[in-house]
Write a structure and sequence with these properties.
By secondary structure, the protein is an alpha/beta fold. It has 18 helices and 25 strands. About 1% of the residues have low confidence.
Length: 519
């Protein structure tokens, strides 16, 4: 089955229901949205693109996002959504790696990306929103929806590995439909009057959650700002109402602070689904106090999209439960189509309470990494997905994540991979060695800190290091702080001990002495 059937069915049965809003303005009903997706599909097919091909989406959140995505599925293609915050060179890497045959983009991003496209020869067509070319695409006339098999690729989801190179998670129709079913049973039932608001990037979790809202023929709202603006969201809560949104913990925190400071009415928010990074207990308690019982937590990863565990509204609200605080600190229990366990390094399941790697099995688990059999074999072993996350289960099946086995830094809900930044900094002639780690930060979850060993004892100028990062990687990844040290702590194999660097930054008790800083 092709995931686009969710839209086809909604349009046939509920054609007159409102489908798409830009801010508070209603743009299309379901019949209209399906007609535009069918027209996009017609345009793509007439340009020679068809089942088996991939179409990249490098756009900030905009109303065209859904017609491009569902239009590509309608034509039988797979989508490759790319985070609009990435540096154009990073986007180019993904375009090239995915061998995308076409690209949807928006004018703000096109200016810097299009001059680089010679380096992505597979791209044969570029559709820039708001241009005559884009209107032409839709002018070709509709085609019937393509048939796809459950195991066919629907979404190539680029995440990054600790090697610093993004990996393309192959998400199939079956996976996305299993995720959709789990949304209804484990996260939140959806009513047609509900409205999914896209405040987080549609290239990731927010876009994935368009599927259950399509299945329920609910409303889709793209904020006019194209992103996350607490005041705008509070306005949409009162004008559009019944908002459901996926948000990283940082966004939740900012929204709660706004609602509290403005003494705004939270009743226009139906459900705030948070996940993608750790949520501190104090923050969710404050959220519950200010906004009421409107929260659900999910834990997932690209390799098992949005769907490993959930901590439902009822458990978050159950203040009288003797272990309420432990539950708030957990990520909840396995979603209904997921088998989950905690195992040791040999893949042997561990007893409750013991810490090990989280493993997942079920229809929601990825088919593998695109063009990367080695990484696929590492992640999928013995029939299980090895998540790289470390945690422990309690006797009732609640999972508490302890740490990530990889050294991923999660800042504001975005994953940042240290190796990528280290490679950029090492390009500076004054840098002999470097190690990038995350330091706890009350607002962003973590902030990026670089420990730098200067070459020949002379400190490079932090502004020059910053400039180097700005040239090569997305802004949000660059270090917020530089610490200059004589040497990095290393083990017997010469591997840098990042745990020691992190402990030094966290300033906890029993921590090892920080590496000696140069003056
Ligand atoms: P991504 O593949 O970009 O979605 O990142 C997934 C990673 O984010 C997971 O492997 C976890 O390490 C982390 N993560 C996701 N959800 C949660 C959560 N609810 N609490 C803590 N960490 C999370």
């Amino acid at each position: 089955m092709n995931v686009v059937q969710l839209l086809v069915r909604a349009a046939r049965t509920h054609g007159a229901r409102p489908a798409l809003y830009h801010g508070a303005s209603r743009l299309l009903d379901y019949r209209g949205l399906a007609a535009r997706a069918a027209a996009v599909a017609g345009g793509l097919r007439r340009r020679g693109l068809g089942p088996g091909d991939r179409v990249a989406l490098f756009m900030a959140n905009c109303p065209e996002y859904l017609e491009a995505m569902y239009g590509a599925w309608w034509a039988g293609l797979a989508v490759v959504p790319i985070n609009a915050k990435l540096h154009p060179r990073e986007a180019l890497f993904i375009l090239e790696h995915a061998r995308a045959g076409a690209l949807f983009t928006s004018p703000d991003l096109a200016t810097s990306l299009l001059p680089l496209l010679d380096e992505a020869p597979a791209i044969r067509h570029v559709f820039e929103t708001g241009t005559a070319g884009y209107r032409d695409l839709l002018g070709a006339g509709p085609v019937p929806p393509a048939r796809r098999r459950p195991e066919d690729l629907a979404w190539l989801f680029y995440t990054s590995g600790t090697t610093g190179r993004p990996k393309g998670v192959m998400q199939t129709n079956r996976m996305l439909l299993a995720m959709t079913a789990c949304y209804f049973s484990d996260v939140d039932p959806v009513d047609a009057a509900d409205a999914a608001v896209y405040a987080a990037p549609m290239s990731h979790g927010a876009g994935l959650y368009s599927l259950p809202h399509m299945a329920a023929a609910a409303r889709h709202v793209v904020p006019e700002s194209g992103g996350f603006d607490p005041a705008e969201l509070a306005g949409l809560a009162s004008s559009v109402g019944r908002l459901s949104m996926f948000a990283a913990p940082t966004m939740v925190k900012r929204l709660v602070a706004h609602v509290e400071a403005a003494d705004a009415d939270p009743s226009g928010f139906k459900t705030l689904v948070y996940g993608g990074g750790p949520m501190y207990v104090e923050d969710i308690r404050r959220g519950l106090a200010v906004m009421g019982d409107r929260f659900v937590q999910i834990y997932g990863q690209g390799e098992s999209p949005m769907t490993i565990t959930a901590l439902p509204r009822q458990q978050l609200a159950d203040r009288g439960h003797p272990r309420w605080l432990e539950r708030l600190a957990s990520v909840g229990y396995a979603q209904s189509q997921v088998e989950m366990r905690v195992a040791d390094e040999h893949g042997e399941p561990l007893p409750d309470g013991e810490i090990g790697e989280v493993q997942v099995r079920g229809d929601v688990v990825m088919a593998g990494y695109w063009r990367d059999p080695q990484a696929s074999a590492r992640a999928l072993r013995g029939g299980w997905l090895w998540t790289g996350d470390v945690g422990a289960l309690d006797a009732e099946g609640f999972l508490t994540l302890k740490d990530r086995s990889k050294d991923v830094i999660i800042s504001g809900g975005s994953n940042i991979y240290p190796r990528e930044i280290e490679e950029v900094l090492l390009a500076h002639p004054g840098v002999a060695e470097v190690a990038v780690v995350g330091a706890p930060d009350p607002e962003w979850g973590e902030e990026v800190v670089a420990f730098v060993v200067p070459r020949d004892g002379e400190r490079p100028d932090p502004a020059a290091l910053d400039g180097l990062c700005l040239d090569r990687i997305a802004r949000f990844k660059r270090p917020k702080r530089y610490r200059f040290v004589d040497a990095l702590p290393k083990n017997h194999y010469g591997k840098v001990l990042k745990t020691e660097l992190k402990a030094a930054l966290a300033g906890g008790r029993n921590e090892p002495a920080p590496p000696k800083e140069t003056t």
